[in-house]
Amino acid sequence: MFQFLRKYDKWILVVGGSLLMITFLVPQAIQGLAEYSAQTGATWATVGSNKESVTSGEADMLRRQTRLIDLLGASTPLGQLGVGTNPAHWYLLAREARAAGLVGGSSSGYEIAQQIGAGRADGEAVTPEMVIATLGSQAGLSPAQTIATLAEVRGVTQLLALVGTAGRFSDTRLRSAAARKSLGIAADVVVIDARTDETLAPPEIDEPRLIEQMTAHADVLPGTEDSTFGYRIPDRFKLEWLMIPKASVRASLENSPELGPVELRKAFMKDPTRFGAAATTSRFNDEKARIREVVLDDLTDARMNAIAKFASDQTQFPRRGMGRIGLHYDLPADWASRRQSFTGLADEISREFDLPLPAYRSSGQTWLAVEDLSDEERFGSLAASDTDLYGRNRTPVSTIIPALRDFGGSDSIAVQSGVALPPTFAPDGDLYLARIIDTDPSRPPADLDEVRAEVRADVEAMLRYETLASRLPEIEQAARTDGLRSIADAYDVPVEFAADIREANLQILLQYGIELSSSIPGLGTNAEAIAAIVDRAMSLDPTRPLADQPIDQRVFAVALPERLAVLVVSIDKLMPLTEEQWSGLAANQGPLQAAITQDLAAFDPASIFGFEALKARHAFERSLEDDTDDEFADEFADEAPAA
Prior knowledge:
Blueprint: H1 2-7, H2 9-41, E1 43-47, E2 52-55, H3 56-71, H4 77-80, H5 87-99, H6 106-118, H7 128-139, H8 143-165, H9 171-182, E3 184-193, H10 207-216, E4 236-244, H11 246-252, H12 261-270, H13 281-286, H14 288-316, E5 324-325, E6 328-329, H15 335-338, H16 342-353, E7 359-362, H17 376-379, E8 386-387, E9 395-396, H18 397-400, E10 424-425, E11 431-440, H19 452-470, H20 472-482, H21 484-490, E12 496-501, H22 506-512, H23 527-538, H24 551-554, E13 555-560, E14 565-575, H25 579-587, H26 590-598, H27 605-609, H28 611-617, E15 621-622, H29 630-635
Antiparallel strand pairs: 1-2, 1-15, 3-12, 3-14, 4-7, 4-11, 5-6, 8-9, 10-11, 13-14
């Protein structure tokens, strides 16, 4: 026996040790497998009215899938919804996409991998297999799982796109919108404008009220859209300019040797078709006067260009060798004395080209805004004069001045105060040379005195409007009882007839896709007023005479606080949508749908596919007491959530 044991002792130790190890490990393995099975089989969440369970094992897969979605970037539709950090959100989105039949097979996921590889900005060749391997390894997914996840991503993205671009308008809604927008209304109107009314006693205004009004609107520019008041000082400037009339240059060339018979004949023989004739002597003699005019035009244009170049050279000469900061010159402190004076430039132009002395003009101490240059009596065509220096399209002075470095500058137009603007030509051919000599960039007013007149006028208008608004019931009753003429006489304003008030012109809407509303005499195009009139008109029966319908629906007053005015309306006639007009709209619904869309809020994917919306729609509930995925949240604690 001992001999047998000595002979096979090694085998006995190997076999016996293995059996002992198995004896000790099997219970632990069985316990571990049981625990793992319990963990992966535990309920992570329930969904739907029938409380369908989602296991922890499925949740683990969801976490890995959301890692992959996070790798695709925050700019993707899923990234913008924040899906990359919320496994529950991804589960509900994929569930809806599968229910809609939008999740394809492995070929669909493979195509997404192809698109990702083809979209590499660096131009490096990346195969779909490389994309799948990279995404899978970083997300902890096998290739098959990665492809399946990409297929689901494609399905969910298609779902978002389909809902976002789906038509939201039924035929009934389209017809109702068309009926409203195309309803034509003829009416007598009276506009009582609080800014111009002189029938009300001037209100008493104290200094604190003026200061309060200025302070509330000190940083709003006058005329800003959606703002009734504004006292911010706009960009202002002072300038000097010269104007060389084309007529003077033309007159100086009347006796030019280049207009002699021989020169004219040479010009004619060089290109007869330019003068609309064949190269024959008899034809030249017949058209000699017209040929002279054409050649004189050419000489004038050439001389105008020569003057512009001469002036540009003279103003640039003092800047030669001067340093720049970006696109602009670094002007020295004594630049005002070193630069070419415009009076001296006028003398040089006069002597060089034998012209009458160009008139020098300046804005003096008056601050100007760009809009002031439209005063042709004072500035001529300076605002409309332009240059081709800054691109293919000609740039007018009215666009050049706002690009001053002093006003914020421009990446394409390098101009600054103290430096002459490039020579510009007006539509009539006159040449302008201008220079900004001082600037006052846009800012809030320094004190009330700087805008006192504007503030006082606005406060007076506000107080008068409050009085008018308080009288609205009385104004309406008087209009219904005594007619609009009584209101017009009481407030010293005219009764105007608006022949066609409507929210949209159907012909323009169909042809150009533009919703162009009507204009009301005394108000202009005012959407608030037109909407109020249409609201009342829609309550009237177009099949019955207006005189038989309630007067309070036909004659009414509308308060317009944004306009500081009261509008009194008496509807005389309705022009409803006809079947012929509706047929035209029904055949081309795009413009109408676009017009309706402008009245609606933009589509927000989060309102339909956000986590809270999906959670409510699918009756989704987490089994844990809190609603967060702690394990997943910890992993992404240091990362910014997707936008």
